[in-house]
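yo

u said u wanted the structure for the complex thing, so here. seqs first:
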Amino acid sequence: MAQATTTARPSRPSSRKRNLWLTGAAALFLWAAMTVDVDLADLKSLPTGLALIVDKMFLEGGPDWSYLDKAVPAMVASLEMAWIGTIIGATLSLPLGFLGAKNVASGWVSNLMRQVLNGIRAFPELILAVAIFIPIAGLGPVAGALAIGLHSAGTLGKLTAEAIEGIDPGPMEAARAAGGRGLQVQRWGVLPQVLPELIGFWLYRFEINIRAGAVLGVVGAGGIGFLLDQTMRYHFYAKAGMCILVVIVATIVVDTLSGGVRRRIIEGSDSKQVPEVDLQAVSATAD
Amino acid sequence: MIKFQNASVTYAGGVHALKNLTLEIPDGEMIVIVGLSGAGKSTLIRAVNGLVPLTDGDLVVDGVSVRGASTKQLRELRSHIGMIFQTFNLVNRTTVLNNVLMGRLHKTSTWRSLMGWYKPTDVEIAMQALERVDIVEKAYVRASNLSGGQQQRVGIARALAQEPSILLADEPVASLDPPTSHVVMRDLQRINRELGITTIVNLHFLDLAKVYGERIVGLRAGELVYDGTGEQADEHVFRDIYGRSLTADDVMGAPEPVPVTVSA
Amino acid sequence: MTSATQATHRPAKPPRSLTIYAGLAVFVVITLLSVSEEWGIGLDIPALIADIGRGEFVLRQLLNPNWEFLPHVIEPFIETFKIAVIAAFIGCLVALPIVFFASRTTAPNRIALNTTRGILSVVRAIPDLLYALIFVAAVGIGPLPGIMALIFFNIGVVAKLLSETVDGVDKGPIEAVDAGGSSRTQMVRWAVIPQVLPSYVAFSLYAFELNVRASTVLGWVGAGGIGMLLRTQYSFQKWSNVSVIIICLFVVVLLIETVSIRWRRRLV
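structre next:
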């Protein structure tokens, strides 16, 4: 190089901190893998065992198409559980979310509400069904729908509160300046700003709830999960295969429909968010 | 040597971005392309390294016909053509050095590049490239922590790390303020003179073009309307290139700063 | 106001678009069908409220946890934690290469893209508990089916989130790498991965967090962890013991979520 270098080259910064994290994570994994109660023999039998089951479910023995008569209505019940659960969750989440937003409710109310929402979210649907709703509503899809509803209220409430905290304060101020009262300000200054986003959250939650609705039957809360549990337990693999097929097809169909509606709503609104980013924000905090 | 022969580019929407262009650029020349936005400047530059394929005519770069080139030949060709972008196109989340080393990828085997084990000679080349644009002290800083002018110098270093024979600069100063623009343009000029790298620069501001363009090529609606020296290009010529009278937006308006004497 | 007398017509109120009405109609019909006794699940809210006392016996016991049961809970919770760790690690590692076939930005061609996306949507359509059922049938009860179930679950979650992130990366560096004559693999490694790495780590933490929640229930079908204990105590109607399990679960989930969210915030 002709040019004289006046500036000294910097030395390579230490990557010790990063290496420490990586080592820590690897150590955690190794500890878990070495001490977990898994037999090597079981691990070895996994491929053959799985191949055998898949064969009995879908290839050699199944699926048992005659079982479609029972599987489809059961799946419909699962979808209905998810639908009603989502409606219950969305309805409850609106007041909870507004009260949990720092720019709407006063400090202690929003803090308290956030804690309540976190508390609700911590219980999986299955636990809510077993411990609360089956004892109250008895075995069946009503208990499942209620369990899904309460859990969804927790997750949707948190997302609603976060969406409200992210709004442009201008319209709210304008509504207040024009003499609007509390609820009026919320209705015209806040709700129009967040509604498209909220509907997106609801639909997204519905998609998640379909999966919950499909398995809650395992504890007796109705839907196709009950058939899955029974057929698997008594080794009717061809019938189980049929149920699994129904679950997969129904879930993909409803996912696609719901995803299409969601995209249209988000694109149609003047919400600033790009769909992809939006989805990410939802799912990164959804459950 | 870059040779356009009746080269045309028509985009899928039917837009004629380049029309029947014939142009010869000898080795080691610094040439500035001027024209309104949409006149085909970017298309011309991207045709040289095959990022935009010709739809008609021919283009020969260093003896290789770009139009008929296979993916592999195209990659080979691109490996010795450096490119500088208006928006810098750096990976913001990684270090300056890693960005510059991207210029060495074509010389690095896939597995080495996957692990990030660049050869010491490649790291040396990257460091020298950073030294050439005077920003080596930022080698281990994240690209996002640099100012616009610094980021563009990293962009130039990345192109230099390819040890190119041709340098393409697509509106390299459009995102920069006037004083920084002069710094970057002078860097390009110095590199052209010291290393003899053929340099093609797209510019919008005609005062910059006059100062730095030994040779100016004017494009209007995809057609070549001027080809001459910077001195010859007067207001008349520019009015013809732009197809309208000139406005304040067409000049950067900042005088060239007093040249700093670079120690030889 | 003089301007009011001017000739410009006031615009008529624009009719609401038909799709909104159609959408509302669909919504109402589906909802009515779903709650009906005959076609749906038979949701009868007044009856539910009238019968709310049915749960009183259980709830009373749940509110009276048997703390002597606490020592029995610890071991299964550690197992749950291990299951979550192992599955998150393997699942996230396996998901990474898949992601680049599932994103428009990086997939080598349309066929690879659509095939990968198709497989992923099937993977995501199967709920975690169903995976657990299948794997329990394949290898018997224990933590192994739980780990396997969550691996698949994690692949679904991480591949979807990360491929959307890859779709949205800044295309500039990709053009720059292309202009330098590099291969596709090198482009992914140096122009894409540095951009999405923080998101990848954040999603992996999120997947781990989901695993902790999920693995508390996988045991219900025999896939190891605290869920197995929950099921036995439930079948013996030992509600005070169930209560202890639920309280611990609540604490563990909140604890892990708090830590995970804090780390994720620092990343993105």
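Residues 270-287 of chain A have pLDDT under 50 and may be disordered. The longest helix of chain A spans residues 182-215.
cya
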